[in-house]
């Protein structure tokens, strides 16, 4: 057995030990959320990858409930911001308040100062409010007047948006969507799942969960996720997928050239590899495999590829582009 094999075994053992709390977390969440396993996994992967997540789906699919339940099951602070057209940046980050007694301006912190921040229906607020999240999401800090405050770890923004309404909405600019590690599309539950949803909502104690994890569990898991072994061939596979979104003609995908306005940024490469590691962690593995990358590629890249007018005219989506790319790039 080589040194590298011994090292991978040690990482694998550590992952199995440190990922045990994830199963408890899922069990607790499933007491409230029926089905939607993909959404729950994506929420956990974003949390473990030190990222943020954007959930898109029609109303009533438990997006907000899932986020609130996750926060309730972990011993963290939680705040919810309902984005509306009349919201102001100060309503998100806070502002300076004049204190008559001290004759000084004092900082009044906003709801952004929490471990989990739910930006509900984020596309209902104008750009100046959406951009108020940018510094917090990327720099993990907030500036109010002359004061800059570091945000407490773990910090994660969980945003939701409704894709079916266009009146009174402000589509997120590309620069902001790129800051989300994942964009997950939520679909309707199956019929047997919906029957169980209806029954559970009739119960008196519906929605109550216990805290089964702590901040320390999350922070330690984040450190372990970064240690998960990734073979250079897997790294190259990730880079090939990303570069195929920028230069499709170099990968024999000439038909995609007129359909892509711009490809994924370097954040796409970082987040795809991190999401693959998070997926391996959820499966109690200390190493990544190509299936980890394939499982996460749509969630990581669907909001990072710009479409041309030609693609929109032909009703081609970013998911269609990603499918063609992963079917063409050679799997290691």
Using brief descriptors, characterize the structure shown:
Helicase, Ruva Protein, domain 3; alpha/beta; 46% helix; globular; 2 domains; two-stranded antiparallel ribbon; Rossmann fold; five-stranded parallel β-sheet; 332 residues; 15 helices
List the helices and strands and how they pair.
Blueprint: H1 3-18, H2 20-29, H3 37-48, E1 53-56, H4 63-73, E2 78-82, H5 89-93, E3 94-99, E4 104-109, E5 116-120, H6 127-130, H7 134-139, E6 141-144, E7 147-150, E8 156-161, H8 174-177, E9 182-185, H9 191-201, H10 215-227, H11 232-246, E10 260-262, H12 266-282, H13 290-301, E11 306-307, H14 309-313, H15 318-328
Parallel strand pairs: 1-8, 1-9, 2-5, 5-8
Antiparallel strand pairs: 3-4, 6-7, 10-11
Your description of this structure?
- The chain has 2 domains: 3-191, Rossmann fold, CATH 3.40.50; 228-328, Magnesium chelatase subunit I, C-Terminal domain (Helicase, Ruva Protein, domain 3, Orthogonal Bundle).
- The strands form 4 sheets. A 5-stranded parallel β-sheet has the order 2-5-8-1-9.
- The chain starts with a helix and ends with a helix.
- Helix 1 packs antiparallel against helix 10, helix 11 packs across helix 12 and helix 13 (290-301) runs antiparallel to helix 15 (318-328).
- With 332 residues, the protein is an alpha/beta fold.
- Helix content is 46%, strand content 15%.
- It has helices at 3-18, 20-29, 37-48, 63-73, 89-93, 127-130, 134-139, 174-177, 191-201, 215-227, 232-246, 266-282, 290-301, 309-313, 318-328; strands at 53-56, 78-82, 94-99, 104-109, 116-120, 141-144, 147-150, 156-161, 182-185, 260-262, 306-307.
- The chain has 15 helices and 11 strands.
């Amino acid at each position: 057995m080589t040194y590298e094999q011994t090292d991978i075994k040690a990482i694998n053992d550590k992952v199995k030990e440190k990922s045990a709390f994830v199963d408890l977390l899922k069990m607790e969440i499933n007491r409230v959320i029926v089905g939607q396993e993909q959404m729950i996994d994506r929420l956990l992967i974003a949390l473990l990858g030190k990222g943020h997540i954007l959930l898109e789906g029609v109303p009533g699919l438990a997006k907000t409930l899932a986020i609130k339940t996750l926060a309730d099951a972990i011993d963290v602070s939680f705040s919810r911001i309902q984005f509306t057209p009349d919201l102001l940046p100060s309503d998100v980050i806070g502002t300076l308040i004049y204190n008559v007694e001290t004759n000084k301006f004092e900082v009044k912190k906003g709801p952004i100062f929490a471990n989990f921040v739910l930006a509900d229906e984020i596309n209902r607020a104008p750009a100046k409010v959406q951009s108020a999240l940018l510094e917090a999401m990327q720099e993990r800090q907030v500036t109010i007047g002359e004061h800059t405050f570091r945000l407490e770890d773990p910090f994660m923004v969980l945003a939701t948006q409704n894709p079916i309404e266009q009146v009174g909405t402000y589509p997120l600019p590309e620069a902001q969507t790129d800051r989300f590690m994942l964009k997950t599309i939520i679909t309707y539950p199956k019929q047997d799942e919906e029957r169980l949803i209806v029954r559970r909502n009739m119960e008196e104690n519906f929605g109550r969960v216990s805290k089964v994890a702590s901040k320390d569990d999350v922070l330690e898991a984040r450190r372990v996720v970064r240690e998960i072994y990734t073979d250079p061939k897997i790294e190259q596979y990730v880079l090939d997928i990303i570069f195929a979104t920028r230069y499709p003609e170099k990968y024999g995908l000439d038909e995609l050239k007129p359909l892509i306005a711009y490809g994924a940024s370097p954040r796409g490469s970082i987040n795809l590899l991190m999401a693959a590691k998070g997926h391996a962690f959820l499966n109690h593995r200390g190493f990544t495999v190509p299936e980890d990358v394939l499982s996460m590629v749509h969630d990581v890249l669907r909001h990072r590829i710009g479409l041309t007018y030609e693609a929109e005219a032909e009703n081609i989506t970013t998911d269609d582009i990603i499918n063609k790319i992963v079917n063409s790039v050679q799997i290691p």
